[in-house]
Design goal:
Elements (H helix, E strand, L loop, with lengths): L1 H38 L8 H10 L6 H26 L3 H18 L3 H16 L7 H22 L4 H29 L2 H12 L2 H20 L7 H31 L8 H22 L5 H11 L9 H20 L4 H7 L1 H4 L3 H5 L1
Helix pairs in contact: 1-2, 1-6, 2-3, 2-6, 3-4, 3-5, 3-6, 4-5, 7-8, 7-9, 7-10, 7-11, 8-10, 9-10, 10-13, 11-12, 11-13, 12-13
Length: 365
């Protein structure tokens, strides 16, 4: 019980560590937006300005530059429709329903993005339910939204989270998951344990979320290096993570097939040989090496060498159908990881030809 509690606390603290820069950006940006809107723009209640900062920066991963554009236009649509209609029909329950419906319909016709549509609707509600309309109200609120959006970008640029920490953290999750699947499948083969194979398959089926989070992390990291002068000179380092994004996704997809076929192979009359488990562990260790080398900012040469060593292994003879499929998937995973190290597809495939090439005796048979 204590172990689970301590693990949970460490996980929460780790999550806070990742989100702390975004929290600081939100806090500082909201205060600056409020101050600028009051003292420079002369707006009495500019709450759209700090709200814009919170939406644009957020506390998670995303495309902030696109958020700024969607936010400002969404607020403009909502405020424009709200101000126009409320001036004619007044405020009330049915008026709110009509204003929200028209604002969101207009937003959908212009742009189907969820943030854009939601912001248009919420802005219309605020106008219809809370804010007195006057000649300049709509323009003031649009200016507040733009001010908040611009300050949000400025806080991300001047108080940036480390793009490499973000990318490395999420790549670590993906490669750890891949390594776990391969290790459990290897153990299942060694022990002829169907339950372990089933656990490996279940683990493999839950990995897609980690892949999607990594892809969003790479996009966020690219965005930070684009808008933050503090990281302009390090874009080349982030390029390694961009190179790895698609290949590691493919590697995990192949690992799911490998785990499923491992489970099937253990039920066949000719189960896979334990030598396959050794090859799986070598690929698993190469995945962890890739993770460490990228996090250290180095060219992943050790990971590449480990994968090339797998290519030199001879294929066991007289295998069952499922074992042949396992070898094919392991080969594909190795190709994917070699591409993640920076090799092109043709070179990676060529180096791994010997992994699944049949022996002469097999060819004769």
């Amino acid at each position: 019980m204590r172990t689970r509690l301590s693990d949970h606390v460490r996980e929460r603290l780790s999550g806070f560590g990742m989100m702390a820069p975004s929290i600081a950006q939100c806090a500082v940006g909201a205060a600056l937006a409020w101050t600028v809107a009051i003292h420079l723009l002369g707006h009495a209640r500019p709450f759209f300005a700090p709200i814009s900062v919170l939406i644009c920066v957020g506390v998670g991963l995303g495309q902030r530059l696109r958020r700024v554009a969607e936010l400002v236009v969404g607020v403009s649509v909502g405020v424009g429709v709200g101000d126009l209609l409320v001036a004619w029909i007044g405020s009330g329950a049915w008026q709110i329903a009509l204003v929200v419906a028209l604002a969101m319909t207009t937003a959908v016709l212009l742009n189907s993005g969820a943030l854009f549509v939601a912001q248009a609707g919420s802005s219309a509600v605020l106008v219809a339910a809370l804010l007195p309309t006057n000649g300049a109200g709509g323009w003031d609120r649009m200016a507040d939204a733009l001010t908040g959006g611009l300050i949000a970008v400025a806080t991300v640029a001047l108080l940036p989270a480390s793009p490499f920490t973000i990318a490395a953290k999420h790549l670590s999750g993906v490669l750890d998951a891949l390594s776990t699947v391969l290790e459990r499948a290897a153990e299942a083969i060694e022990k002829r344990d169907v339950d372990l194979a089933a656990e490996a398959l279940e683990e493999a089926r839950t990995t897609q979320a980690a892949v999607e989070e990594f892809e969003r992390a790479v996009e966020t990291s690219k965005e930070i290096t684009l808008i933050s002068p503090l990281h302009w000179h390090r874009r080349g380092r982030l390029a390694r993570y961009e190179t790895a994004a698609v290949p590691v996704d493919l590697a995990l997809r192949n690992a799911r097939v490998l785990a499923r076929r491992t489970l099937a192979a253990l039920g066949e009359t000719s189960p896979p040989p334990t030598s396959l488990a050794e090859a799986m562990r070598e690929v698993s260790e190469a995945a962890l090496l890739l993770q460490l080398e990228l996090a250290a900012g180095r060219e992943p040469m050790l990971a590449r060498q480990a994968l090339l060593a797998v290519a030199a292994r001879e294929r066991p003879e007289r295998l069952g159908f499922s074992a042949h499929v396992i070898i094919a998937q392991l080969r594909s995973i190795a190709v994917d990881l070699l591409q993640a190290t920076g090799m092109d597809h043709e070179a990676a495939t060529a180096t791994l030809t010997s992994l699944d090439a049949p022996h002469d005796e097999d060819a004769k048979n």
